[in-house]
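Table S5 (text form). Sequence records supplied for joint modeling of the three-component complex.
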Amino acid sequence: MKLSLVLALSLLASPALADWQQTLQAARGQTVYWNAWGGDARTNAFIAWVGDQTEARYGVRVEQAKLSDTAEAVTRVISEKAAGQDEGGSVDLIWLNGPNFLAMKDQGLLHGPFVADLPNARYLDLAPGSAASVDFTVPVDGMESPWRLARFVFTYDSARVAEPPRSMAAFVDWAAANPGRVTHPDPSNFMGATFLKQALIELTPDASVLQDPATEATFDAATAPLWDWYDALRPNLWRGGETYPANESVQQQLLNDGEVDIAMSFDPASAAAAIADGLLPDSARVFVPEGGSIGNISFVAIPYNAANAEGAEVVANFLLDPATQAHMQNIEVLGSFSVLDPARLDEAAKAAFAALPSAPALPTLADLGPTLLEPHASWMTRLTEEWTRRYVK
Amino acid sequence: MSLDLDALCIRSADGVSLFQPLTLHVPAGKVVTVMGPSGVGKSTLLDAIGGHLAHGFHMSGTVRLNGRDVTGLPAEARRIGLLFQDALMFPHLSVGDNLAFGLPASLRGRAPRRAAVEAALSQAGLAGLYERDPATLSGGQRARAALMRTLLADPAALLLDEAFSKLDAGLRGEMRAFTFDHVTSRAIPTLMVTHDPDDATAAGGPVIALKAAPPP
Amino acid sequence: MNHDGRLLRAAVLAGIGLGLITPIVIGLWETGRAAFGILPALGQEVASLEPWQALAALPGIGTSLRLTLITGFGSTLLSLLLATGFCAAVHARMRPSAGAQMLTPFLAIPHAAMAVGLAFVLAPSGWIARMLAPLAGWDRPPDIATVHDGWGLALMIGLMVKEVPFLLLVILSALGQIPVARHMAAGRALGYGRGIVWIKIIMPQVWPLIRLPVWVVLAYALSVVDMAIILGPSTPPTLAVAVTRWFTDPDPAMILPASAGAIVQAGIVALAVALMLVAEALGKRLGRWWLRRGGRGLSAEPGLWAASAVTMALMAVGVLAMVSLVVWSLAWRWSYPQILPQSWSLKPWTGAQDGWMRALANTLLLAGATVGLSLALAIAWLEGEDRARRARAPWAEALIYLPLLIPQIGFLYGLNVGFLQIGLSGGIIAVIWAQALFVFPYVMIALSDPWRALDPRVIRVAAALGAGPGRRLWAVKLPMLIRPILTAAAIGVSVSVAQYLPTLFMGAGRIATLTTEAVTLSSGSDRRVTGVYASLQAGLPFAAYLAAFLIPAILHRNRRALTGASAP
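The corresponding structure-token record, covering 1177 residues in total, follows.
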């Protein structure tokens, strides 16, 4: 009895919780400028909803700085550092992952580690090597907090296409049979680079080298089959491979316009969501290559000079709340899969996830097959550079 | 009241004098006419007297009103009225507000100011036209309104710059008589530049020929 | 010159110097330093040529340069040719005021909104293709690059849709200062055809009056970013877009070659203007030789009609683009090959309501502040000239055009660094300041001519009636000039609403305006929401023009001389 009381008291007074109370206090009244890609209306609406919730619960307002490319926010922090503005910076929270995270982490542009301080981090599987603890093989080290799960999927119109290609290798024959009906976003864009990475993982002789930083030697050897494949594919791409859609949203619009037959996304629910929004025909469906597809996690990070770091932590914590994650996974809201570890949820939270509505175009986890690991971030950078060197004249 | 010019001379930006130095005396209620070939600088002379000289012109000599040197004063402080061949009514104001524009601020109160304008309007045969758009007046009405506007400002002298040249022949005589009657009754020294000899005859005062300065 | 005038002029000069010239100089200086490798934030302290080598080694840089030159020069020269031909063909048949009214929608709509509309109208699955589809039997959109094409043709069409009307307006107003009808009669009496009189007699008189606006058009076309993102080629893009991308690259080291690229962009514009001067001198010589030969045989008539036809076609495409914005904003499903939406909905408006209301509020705030500041400065400048009774010095005229001739990308990055150092970046003040750099010149240019056209004798009469300088300004000049002042304000509003780069760079992405949102959304998947933003973006300047027309008409409804029926 006595012992348990002491235990309870010591738990209550644990430094972490006390710190969190301080954080909540400091955060009250702050306005968090969340720099997030603004190309998706449903994500924008979700972020607005998050702001309404945090303002009501914690007195923290959220303003979305809508980016057309996440790099804009990174550049902004860099130019603030350039001008010696080491506090009161204009960016409080960034939606990022992969190379942008690596760039900011390497240059000491991030606040943290802070993830372990978030009370809702207890719902995450943060064991070394788990999906939420590495970002493109780079250890997260508590410098960014996960918020939505991403899986690479293709979208097609089942009314127009009977049989989509079943593997990356099959794209070559499929495109030859349907010239001009397939393309991919520009590889300078995240999604375009992911298309190349998905093919690389499937085509390269030994996929395990992709988990280490790329070197001259490993890069050339590992990517040789990829370039052969791409050289065969490119002539039959939309516009003869002379031009590419800027990002996946533009390509989804091309699919809706009937200019191409295949689009791609990092969100398995995107097709169902787009149908609900009137942005794709009802016959749109999702497919993944037979060997599975790349998966990763979207994170939020806080710049080192953020003016409202406490508020940003409160928002990051709110994003990990099981109720928030269930709301996010609702196909009528965003449809993004939760980042929480189901094993760590209580019964009520599990029931909330189980009760979410479904839709014809929404794949099940089983439909999606195995998740392929993201290569080390250096591969993406090099792939983009090499692609540009080869094909941008 | 009187208007005196003393060795008034105007040089343009390149230092050339426009006309030979001019000295003249305009007694109260009299009209002195200045004539001269076009381009000699008749209008520039009036600009100099009224205080409106453009940048680049340089003036020497003095302008005196009632013996007081006004050469250094800005136009608005000189109390020298100005009439052009166009009536130049302010297009955004009603006829009555045009007249009220020149009323001295010393006349206070809405009612007395309105009364002064209404009186001037009836004097000019424009009774009841206070609210009218000046653009809808006839040429003669406009000319009379412009004169009344100038007189209401209680000028110490009056400058007429080809003031009658745009009126048609019948109206011209009428307007001359109307103007000169007012000048005489109010004893305002008046200087008129014109190239119409009939203007000079009607004015009845001395006529001065403005002569171009000899080339340097 | 009285004391008051001197103080006013000093204040204006200080305002122009500190507010307008200093930012440009600082911006160019900081950008130039980075272009030569000095960027202390990245630990780069030593001047070097490495950024230039890095720039030269970037993939596609040669193509980017070529695209910039082709689209910039191509669109400007074609626009000039079309506008001239159109004026020659229809000038005698058109009242100038009718022409101006017809052109207003084209001038009012921001480049980005026009580009968003054109991107749909011209696309292989777009409106024109849908109209042709039943005839051509396209059950799928043809695989032809009509937007984002490798030659930049779509970008050139977009620029021309905006530039031809602008040049038409400029040429029409220049023609107002020339006795065209009499010169035409004299020329034709001497046996020259209409088109030839136009080329040999009228245009040589028009050119000096439109030279500066043509330079501005050329500088703009060479360095446009928003329209080039939406319509231009993307792999690789034009230089200005490429430089913008490099400035926002996740790798901060890219700022160095980006700065070098920005300096190249500024250099291209400077060279282009120099080239225009050389061409003008050559043209004078050749023209004189041609004139003296006295040839009369050549007929330019078919050329004039071709120019008119192409101009009308461009305008028709522009109208389609504007209409398509509104139709999209009211559509739900509108798929190929339907000519009209299958289902209509107000959801695009209601769903994005919070977003567009905030963007609209920011846009209105920025337009109000920049136009207010610019008008105040312009009026102070013109009043200062009046009080000093001076004409404008040529250097002062050049100063006004300066911000319009230097490409924005050339100094905005550096200016942002400068603003950061004084703690001004990322706020509304910084955006207002940066936008005002471009709003002020247009307001000043729009106001100068009507201001000077005011009969100076009216002002002298007011002075003779005892009105001091303050009363002359407030009670006489400003009320008489209310129409041109409001027109200048409307032009200012349309310039402010259209600003993309200054808002993006100085606002740290926090200041969302209709334009930044429309450009961002144009790279998204929802044309309907983009249509909402672009419709608002186009509607706002149009409303400003309408107000500039209606307010004076109502204020001066009983003042015939001011209602525009007959100029005072």
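Note: The first helix of chain B runs from residue 42 to 50.
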